[in-house]
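Hey team,

Filing this mostly as a record. A colleague (T.K.) asked me to run one chain through the structure pipeline before their review meeting, and I want the input and output archived in the tracker in case anyone asks later how it was produced. No errors, nothing strange. Just documentation.

Input sequence:
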Amino acid sequence: MTCCPACGTGLLLPTPGCSIDPLLAFPVRGGTMEVRTSQNMILWFFLGCFLISISLMGWLLSPFFPIIVLGAVVAGAFSPLYRLISAHERISPGFASMLTCGLIFLSLFVPIVFFVGILTQEAAELIQLAKSPALSSFINTHFTNSALLARINPLLANLDIAITGEELNTTISEIGRAVGQFLFDQARSIASNTLAFIASFFLMLLVIFFLLIDGPRLIRFLIDLSPLPEEQDAQLIDKFSDMAGAILFGNGLCGIIQGAAGGAIFWLFGLQSAFLWGVIMALLAFLPIIGIGVVFIPTVIFLFLKGRIAVSIFFLVFYLLLSGSVEYLLKPRVVGKRVQMHTLVVFLAIIGGLRLFGILGIIYGPLIATAFLTLTDIYHASYQRLIEDT
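Output structure:
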């Protein structure tokens, strides 16, 4: 029997109280080189098993990944409310989490169920309008058969661009059909899978319930598991938390305000599908650079061509006041300076997220961009010089 190299006992492993590293407790026949080789083999075997277990766990949880991510974002955004409720001595953490989940249910589930039916109907009407002869007749009357295109085309001649009535008709019809189809598909996926939606929502509430209670312990577990220094882990977690708050409370609140105000103005002036356009404006409010102007500017032109000059001017002034006050006064106060991200990066992240993940891309896109930019900052601060010196 081979003795322990540290204490001389006839054991392969050290005796209790022996100070030797367990990885060094194996028989030594070729000196230090064989010990290191044995250590490396054990380490790589463990890392292989560990990576396989992580992959299997990820595969096991992959059907619930959207629910877990969305639950983590909502839990992070509502955690200040949970802490406020649980601060009372007579309220236990479990009851405080239950109250918070109840408020989340009332603020998210009830409006979604109420809006889905109306949104599905109006999105279907927009698709039919884009295919109807009425839209083609309007375009032909106000563009093709008028002098408007004859005035615009000479201005575009220097850019080698010429607009025809047929191209304009096709473009406007395709835009209306694409927008209506996207919203119709999102609403129909909820309406046609009502049971699945309800189950997913309550599963998300279950995730939120435990994250509110055990969130700090989970964060501590992830920090201990990560090989990165603790301050870098904290930086990543703080950035994610700030972005989640910015998405739900910053962009979300501002989007609701602009969508509700825009939809109300459309309804007051008798424009068609006011609710649908309000939802579209609420979503577009997440996008910097363009925002709700994508809806308001064409509406101003549409009203002007129909001869409603005063109404078109009112819509233009209302758009400037609404967009300017929300974007430059309200949003900076709500979001603050916690999330520093270039406007173009936010725009591309949301557009890419919408194309890859659907409506949830509004959340996923900025979170992915946040992870990339934060890791980039960590690389420049801690690892770039190490790589350059090798």
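Quick notes for T.K.: Confidence is low (pLDDT under 50) at residues 1-16, 19-29. Residues 93-131 form the longest helix (39 residues).
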